[in-house]
Design a protein that fits this description.
- This protein is mostly helical and about 190 residues long.
- The chain contains eleven helices and no strands.
């Protein structure tokens, strides 16, 4: 609202997100972070083919090489595309901070998918879960459950999958639309039920 993308009383939508991201990219066309945000949105929409050139255009920039957010989006895409050797080379050359939610999430994915070391993957996943927004990252819980299952820890894997599913269902659009409507009018007790 304060940035002018939606009017007072209007609820955000997918269209608003597209306009906002396009505006950011127009204002900072060479920013690795801006392009990674746009690519992440495209990946979420299952449009990997459009996301790939955005990330490739800045992958060798200093901004990209030092950003845990760029690392996360780039490596997720490479792993989804099965480009494991490239993801390994990029991960090992990463020059940014080696701590925090995004880094540990990706380090866990690399340990799990590329290096095939599930015990180490769990260490990273657990560190990522302990840092916001780890507790709400349902896909991270799914990755953790996969490593637990491969290690033969079936009961823990099942519990982790169940928790991931609970959180995933809370991320559905109808739930968020209802919450947004409630937040628009906090003075009306009827909307808060």
């Amino acid at each position: 609202r304060r940035m002018g993308f939606i009017a007072d009383g209007q609820v955000g939508s997918a269209g608003v997100v597209v306009v906002r991201l396009a505006t950011f990219q127009r204002n900072e066309p060479a920013s690795a972070i801006t392009l990674a945000v746009n690519a992440a949105h495209l990946i979420q929409l299952r449009d990997r083919e459009s996301a790939l050139p955005l990330l490739e255009s800045v992958q060798s920039s200093d901004d990209a090489r030092a950003s845990d957010f760029f690392l996360s989006v780039w490596l997720n895409l490479l792993l989804e595309l099965g480009r494991l050797p490239e993801s390994q080379a990029w991960f090992e050359a990463y020059k940014g901070p080696r701590q925090g939610h995004l880094y540990d999430r990706m380090a866990g994915r690399m340990e799990q998918t590329v290096y095939r070391r599930d015990e180490r993957a769990l260490e990273h996943f657990d560190r990522a879960l302990a840092v916001w927004p780890g507790a709400m990252d349902w896909s991270l819980l799914h990755f953790r459950a996969q490593s637990l299952a491969r290690l033969g820890r079936r009961q823990e894997a099942d519990q982790t999958r169940a928790r991931a599913k609970e959180i995933e269902l809370l991320m559905e659009l109808p739930v968020h639309q209802q919450l947004r409507q409630m937040l628009l009018n906090l003075n009306d007790p009827a909307t808060l039920r």
